[in-house]
Amino acid sequence: MILLGSTGSIGTNTLSIARRFNLKIDVLVAGRSIDKLNKQIAEFSPRMVVIANQEDIAKVNHSKVLFGEDGILEAIESSDSDLVINSLVGFLGLRPTLKAIECGKKVALANKESLVAAGAFIDISKIQPIDSEHFGLWYLLNENRPVQKMIITASGGAFRDWPLEKLQNASLKDALKHPNWSMGQKITIDSASMVNKTFELLEARWLFGEGQYDAIIETQSLIHALIDFKDGSTTAHFAHADMKLPISYAIMGKVEEQILKPVELLKIGSLEFREITAERYPIWEIKDDLLKNPKRGLVVNAANEAAIELFIEGKCSFLDISKKIIQAYAHFDKEVTSLDEVFVLDKEVRAYVK
Fold first, then answer.
1. Residue 116 belongs to a domain with what CATH number?
2. I want to staple 316 with a disulfide (CB 3.0 to 4.6 A). Which of 136, 137, 279, 320 is the partner?
3. What is the mean pLDDT of the segment spanning 136-152?
4. How far apart are CA 221 and CA 272, in angstroms?
């Protein structure tokens, strides 16, 4: 396989599955974690490696090292592998998704921004979702019964228990204190603002088609998806929050041995569910309209990435992230009609937010 984002959480879990089932790695793509990458190279002996920066090439223990976005695209095109695991973060992951599909490859997708920004121009038949929520929906949909509504769950992020009046003064350090697990900086901020769940709803809309979609908070992150069926019944997908299960299905198609320990309900005792409200998560104001106009996800993604940069630089408050997204959403009231327009509008939105 071709593994994009090998040193991140999805990447290391993918390599754990590759190790367990003796799967071959053709290409490793990483960013700046060169020491970790070198350990992966020593173990998996990829044919080619791609890193973020040209100046780091000499530090990489491999004879074939490319760099940057062009390097990623060249590696995908030159590989005989028919599977790309895309766990890159942000809009950066879109061109590799498009290139992989253009080359006839299957994409195991953890880069939700690909679908959020350009779902209308992506062949969904080539996509297998890795996010636990979409994997949960896919798993439940195998029941093949008429569906009323699809529901995904959220942890609630770093500020789910904060008094509302304190949110305006929330710092970057505060936003990165996820209550359930440790993740990368951007996705942890997205979790705190509920932008991440907004994106996942939009991703579900592209993956599974028109219909009713919603999200609720489940504080222990043990239920990842629920489906209300038209007969009045509801099914839920329970699993420990471990990406090895969806990764295994994405890579191998079927799994016939235990990947995770089952959830023991008696040890859990009880579960807590909460409503996602716009008072705590202002981005929720545009959620329903966005699901009706999914092509406009491009604006939300670009505005979010630009606003997060400002937040990290100390140039805006945490709540300003959602405010800037909503302002951009109102300002750029149009839908793109081509891939070329996707990349043009992305730049325009970022400039507007900055």
1. 3.40.50.720
2. 320
3. 92
4. 10
**Region 224-228 average pLDDT:** 97
Instruction: Tell me how crowded residue 165 is: count the other CB atoms within 10 A of its CB.
Output: 7
- Residues above pLDDT 70, as percent of the chain: 100
Number of domains in the chain: 1
The average confidence (pLDDT) of the chain is: 95
Beta strands in 120-172 (DSSP E): 127-129, 147-154
Band (60; pLDDT cuts 50, 70, 90): very high
Task: Give CA–CA dist 73/100, Å, rounded.
Answer: 8
Q: State the pLDDT confidence band at 116, using cuts at 50, 70 and 90.
A: very high
Sheet with 147-154: list strands edge to edge.
234-238, 223-229, 147-154, 213-218, 273-274
Q: What residues have CB less than 8 Å from 290, skipping those under 6 apart?
A: 198, 201, 202, 296, 297, 300, 329
Backbone phi and psi for residue 293, each to the nearest 5 degrees, phi listed first: -130, 65
Banded model confidence at residue 304, pLDDT cuts 50, 70, 90: very high
Residue 336 lies in a domain: no
Kindly state the average pLDDT of the residues 225-239: 96
Give the range of the structural domain holding residue 60, as residue numbers without chain letter: 2-129
Question: CA-CA distance, 334 to 11, in Å (whole number)?
Answer: 36
122 three-state secondary structure: coil
Token pair for 331: 């300002």
Hey, which residues does 108 pair with through a beta bridge? 85, 128
Tell me if 209 is assigned to some domain: no
Residue 107 has pLDDT above 90, yes or no: yes
Report if residue 311 sits inside a domain. no
Residue 181: the pLDDT is 74
Q: How far apart are CA 174 and CA 189, in angstroms?
A: 9
For the four alpha carbons of 17, 20, 22 and 27, in that order, the dihedral sign comes to: positive
Give residue 254's pLDDT: 87
CB under 8 Å to 2, separation ≥6 — which residues? Answer: 26, 27, 29, 75, 76, 79, 81, 83, 84, 85, 100, 105
